[in-house]
């Protein structure tokens, strides 16, 4: 990035990248049959900023937005969003009345939840069925009764059933047998719902990986989360799509110093220098969401070179091996970014700490500031 590094550390999100990714994904799912695109912006937009990402996604043509909780949905409405919006993770006693008043579509997993929603009156409801993930959604043995109750409530004018959906367990593994089994189960659920008299407007099963890799699972709508942020939903299996990672996490060195061969670094001395070298102090640690497991596994970009993180990541700081160089305080450090210049990416960090890129970008934050830029408006990533 070409703009000044802040005093400590920040997350920079390029909204142009989000718009680009949404357009790419719309092109991927375009075909003979129209398929709508939902961009998932839960968990504060996977750490990218929910309100800002939502606006960028809408501007690029997202038909729907998806969130987990009613509170997230209401925050989007308060920020001015007025398009189709679905939330799907409610608990008994949640404020369904506020959701209905804000024209938010809610999800029911059970007869009990459906009755609680119907008590409000006028709700637009989608029904989630469990096709094999064994997480949220009605189990197969209860589908018949759920659909029957939903149909009765709809005839009584207490709800409108607008969708039926489910979620895949292994879409990032295209050859996993669960994919065929879940798609077959979902088709069974749709047939059963139709026999109960339900005519949902949208039927959806595919997340990012399935949207890209499994055309048969697209139905009326696909839900894209991680891909909208420019990260690969199925590393090693996805075709090149030209997605652009939207997030860069950067800081600047607090200090650099010389250490001697044999000197230990950070708590527990889990790393010792095997020769005289130099190290730099970066003011970000697990208090900012940097994985503690990144110690001795991940790399950062310092002064145009990848540098290994040495020793344990601390609450407020981490140490990088500078290989004998002594860059001055204030030198830019990129923990991860798009990778255009050779800097580590969120995927690199995920592999280094044995997790997924979702977790890397979603957990980062804490005391970091977050800034949104638009490289379409100001090339180079300057703030608008």
Automatic annotation (TrEMBL):
Its EC number is 5.1.1.1. PROSITE patterns: ALANINE_RACEMASE. Residues 246-373 form the Alanine racemase C-terminal domain. Transmembrane segments: none annotated. The modification N6-(pyridoxal phosphate)lysine is found at residue 42. It catalyses: L-alanine = D-alanine. It is an enzyme of class 5 (isomerase). The active site is at 42 (proton acceptor), 267 (proton acceptor). Substrate binds at residues 135, 315. Keywords: Isomerase, Pyridoxal phosphate. Its cofactor is pyridoxal 5'-phosphate. Belongs to the alanine racemase family. Catalyzes the interconversion of L-alanine and D-alanine. May also act on other amino acids. NCBIfam families: alr (TIGR00492). This is Alanine racemase. It comes from Nocardioides furvisabuli. The gene is alr.
